[in-house]
Amino acid sequence: MDRKLGIMLFAAVMVFSLSCSGCGKKQEDLNTISVWHWMIDRNKALEELAAKYEQQTGIKVKIDLFAPSEAYTQKVVASAQAKVLPDIYGILDKKEIFSAFIKGGFIADLTPDFKANNSEWENWFFPKALDVNRFVEGNVYGVKPGIYGVPLDVTNIQMLYNVKLLKKAGVKAPPQTFSEFLEAIQALKRVGVSGLVSGWGELWMLDCFSSNYAFNIMGEEKIMATYRGEVPYTDPDWIKVLDVFKQLVDKGALLEGVVTKANKYAEQDFALERAAFAFNGSWCVNVYNGMNPSLEYGVMLPPAINSNLPMKIWGGAGSSLVVNNMSPRKDKAIAFLKWLSEKDQQTYLAKETKNLPSNREALAEIPEVLSSFASVMDQATHPTFWALNEDPIVSEVFLKGIQSILIGEKTPEQIAQEVQKVKQEQLSKKKK
Amino acid sequence: MEGSRYKAIGVVKSVIIHSFLMSVALTCLFPLFWMIRCSLMTNQTVFTDKTLIPRDLHFSNYIQAWVDGGFGIYFLNSMVYTVSVVVGIVLVSSLAAYAFSRLKFPGKNFFFGMFLAAMMIPLPGSFVPMYVLMTKLGLANTRIGYILCMISVGLSVSILLLKTFFDKLPHDMEDAARIDGCGRLGIWWHVALPLARPALAVIVIFNSLNVWNEYILAYLLLNDTSLMPLQRGLMVFQGTYSVDYPILMSGLTIAALPIILIYLFMQQHIIKGLTEGATVQ
């Protein structure tokens, strides 16, 4: 009986193995490009474009979606170790990891393709969009200077206004200056409408807003000088930056609870017309469309305080794709990415996915709200492009200090002194 | 007089215990209720309608979730994976646990220790080596590769649970079976396994739940959409920046249904299996 049972068990295992292995690996030909991405909302549009590309060229493009981004990142790392990366993929990690992939020979240098025909391909893009994928001469990562990725779209963070609520308050045009903005807030208050909402419970949103005003009030040079320790945070210009938040509180410009609000809740507030202004990124077009398709809103730069300096906003490449340097279909993969960044495809992607195109020529044919976002891409900046970044400990004290101002706990002067004290401590630690 | 006093105390105790249990049950059931409630709304009313039962019920969300999420193939895949993995784990772990419990062989404690040590390694920590191994074996992007990995993931706990259970089984029954002509495999099949039914129920439910809800390893090992499990379908409704809540909730309800059914069918064995398997004689 034991023998019979043993044979039965063995047979079961064999049948199971054979039935499963029947669904095994398929051979891929040299005319099929494989693309791995994580962008759920862009998957359908990418599949449509892939079908169109196959019709035009006969090259099949297989689009594979792996989300969420954490799972995608793990898959890319594991595939790199097993040397089975697809022809086209994206790096979602920090620039250190990006550079490690380049040095490991997993990412193709696209500089010759971008520079060909008097930089024809490079000139299609917003310069800021390419900066994320660019390694400059003498970069700290030790990577050969060049461009290693193709931006699919761009993003930036600005202010939004609710057309209906401004009309209700009698505000005829969106405010251009900070004083006009405060006047608009008073008008809104008179008709019982809250002013500004943003996800300032997330420190990076607060960092972005304060950085916008720091650029407008004192300019990049002075900010960098502060980071180097040459200008103290007690400087009148830094007090002015902190005072922006005090004025917002004093004038009752903020929706209640903004200091602890996560951005997704702030997005709900604006979409459901609980506030007339929002400080949010270009991805909000998608979000607002999902929550309230009839929402009427426009895009504006944060209202400036200093008319002598431009208002800089945070922005850059949204999503980028790279080409596997070890792929036997490398040239075909590059050709597909070039086709994908052409004006027609970029317009299609922007219309379908409501993201900003990375090709500047596509601006004319996309929805107005997206066009407004993208039109100021040249004013975009981002900490990753700066020559220097502030010490993270100092930054945290600065941003938490702003939260203290927002809850009326401390004054701008007190925060400036506290930040400067920490800055000096950090500087002396570095000297040691 | 004394009797009615005791009766009154009994009633009060019962009311307190039942109130407590009902509040715990409500806490557990409320998220399920909320999921079903949201699955019948629209993306706009999810944020505005505060009523417990929405005014307009959108049952079409379930059809949309099934079609847009491509649930047909994913559902089938998840069924295949869950059944194969659970059968594999029950088979291998019961044989291994029986051997660890009853047989004497060199290195027995060392090998058992190795199985227990495997429990200490967090799953994400083993992803990369597992993927590299599967790629080298030519099993990446295959159903068998994923099934084998998932069996390996579930073995340690199942072996521990069953070994503890088998350790407690009286030897007399095995002796009686041996007198009746049973060999080792016969005893395992005819005596040990039927007696271990409560522990097996726990293993089935825990591993079913684990395989049904798993997606990270599937994403890592599988490339073809046609091989993906049900959880892949749910991801479609979570955009990079925005979420289609009603459709997502409809998908979650569909995905949760089989597991709730398995739990309902096997619940009588679970408590028994857990308590008996958890205590060492």
Could you characterize the architecture of this molecule?
- The complex is a heterodimer of chains A (432) and B (281).
- Chain A has 432 residues and is of the alpha/beta class.
- Chain A has helices at residues 2-21, 43-57, 69-81, 95-103, 111-123, 127-131, 163-168, 178-190, 203-228, 236-250, 263-271, 284-291, 330-340, 343-353, 368-374, 392-406, 412-431, and strands at residues 32-37, 60-65, 88-89, 134-135, 146-147, 150-162, 194-197, 275-281, 297-300, 313-323, 356-357, 380-381.
- Chain B has 13 helices and no strands.
- The longest helix of chain B has 38 residues, at 2-39.
- Chain B has helices at residues 2-39, 45-48, 60-68, 71-102, 108-120, 123-136, 143-167, 171-179, 184-195, 197-213, 216-221, 230-235, 245-278.
Protein traits:
heterodimer, A: 432 residues, alpha/beta, D-Maltodextrin-Binding Protein, domain 2, two-stranded parallel ribbon, 12 strands, 50% helix, 14% strand, B: 281 residues, mainly alpha, MetI-like fold, 2 domains, 78% helix
Q: How many strands in all of chain A?
A: 12
How would a textbook summarize the main sheet of chain A? 8 strands, mixed
Oligomer: heterodimer
- How many H/I helices of chain B? 13
* CATH domain topology of the largest domain in chain A: D-Maltodextrin-Binding Protein, domain 2
Task: Count helical runs of chain A.
Answer: 17
**Cα Rg of chain B:** 24 Å
CATH architecture of the largest domain in chain B: Orthogonal Bundle
CATH level 1 name of the largest domain in chain B: Mainly Alpha
